Amino acid sequence: MSRPRTRAEYLARLVPPSVAGLNRRSLLAGAAGTTALLGTGLLAGCGSDSGGSDAKTVSLGSNQSDPKPKEVVAKVVDGFQTSSGLQVAVNTVDHNTFQENINNYLQGRPDDVFMWFAGYRMRFFAARGLAGDLSDVWGRLSGMSDAFRKASTGDDGKQYFVPSSYYPWAVFYRKSVWQQNGYQEPKTLDDLTALAGEMKKDGLTPIAFADKDGWPAMGTFDILNLRINGYQFHIDLMAGKESWTSDKVKKVFDTWRGLLPLHQPDSLGRTWQEAAQSLQQKKSGMYLLGLFVGQQFDGDDLADLDFFTFPEIDPAIGAKALDAPIDGYMMARKPKQEANARKLLEYVGSKAAADITVKNDPSTLVANGEADTSGYSALQRKAAEVVGSATEIAQFLDRDTRPDFASTVIIPALQQFIKDPKDIDGLTSSIENQKKSIFTD
User: What percent of the chain has pLDDT over 70?
Assistant: First the structure.
C-alpha cells in the first residue's frame, strides 16, 4: 500500500472529479500538477476494450503501480489464471492518476474488476449505482469475518467489495532503544505523558511527527477522538451527524494541544518518510502511523521495530478501537465479462490468493482468516492479533467521511491547528460552518 508523497498528490487522490457537484479546479487551486490531469481521460479509457468479447478473459484495473505491490498483484493474477483457465488483462495505472480519475472511469468504460477501498469511499460509489452487487460472491467466500463483511456492505445492505489486505495504525518504537532506557509501554495517557518526559531527559524527541502531506495528522485526530468519545461518535461526526462545535470535539483538540510539545517540531515541513527515518535513526522514541512505517526499515532494523496501541484516556471507553484501513476489489456496474469478473473476485478473496500475498509481501496483512500466516514476521503477527481483538475498527478519517470535506476542510483545519493551537473555538466553528454547506448540497 503506497501513501501519497506530496500534498498535491494527496489531494488528487482524495477528491474524484465531479464529486458532490463541486468544481474540482477551484478545490485544488494551487496544488501543483493536479489540474493538468483533469479531463485527460487517462484512466477513463483504461478498460475501454479490455477483455473484448472473448469469453476466456476478464479485465482488472489496478492502482498498485509501485514495484513491490505490482509484483504481488501479478503473482495473484498468475494463480487465478492457472486455476481458472481464464486470462486477466491487468491495466495498471499509477496510484495518483487512478484516484484522480476514478469517478469518470466508473461512469465511462471501466475494467470488469477494479481495486478500491472499504468504508465511505466504497459506499459512495455503490450508492450512486457505479458498482456491481457482490452479495452472491460473498455467499461463496470462506475465511472472511463479520467485521470484513460489514466493511464491504453498502447502505442498502448488499456487499459491493471484496477485502484483500489491511493494516493497523499504532504507536511504533525501536525495541533496542526502549530496552536500553528501561521504557515500558504506557497503559494510560498519563503514562504516555510521563514516558515522553523521560525521553526528553534522555535526549530523544518523544513523538516523531509529520504533516507536510496533509493526511498523517488525521491519524492523531482519529485516535484521540476514538479514545475520548468512542467509535460511534467518530462515525457520526464523520457522517456529518454530530457538531464540530460540541464540547466532545473541543476536548479532542484540547487534549491534542497538550500533547503537541511532545511532538517533533516543524511537522508541516516534514514528510512521513522523514519522520520515520528519525525513528529509524534512534532520534525519536515513538511514532503514530500505519504498519507501512516498516517500509523505512530494513533487515535488523525492521526486526527491531515494535508497537503498542494508543493508550486509554477514558476507562469507560477503553483502548480497543483503532484505525485499520482495508484495501480490496470491486466490480463495475456493467462488466463486459460478468461471470468471469465474479470468478476473479471470488479468487482474490480466497485463501489461495491470500497465501500468495503472504509469501510475497512482508509489509501487509491479508483479510482471509484461513490463510497460512506462518510466514508472517513477529510484527505482522502482532498487528493481526491487535486488529483481531479490536472491538471497533475505523477506516481512517479520509475514508470515513466525504472526500470533499476531508480535503477542502479537514486538511487545512488540522494544519492550522498544528501551526497555532490556541483558538480551538474559532477552529471548530469554522469547520462546522463549512461542514454544513458541504453536507447539505
Answer: 87
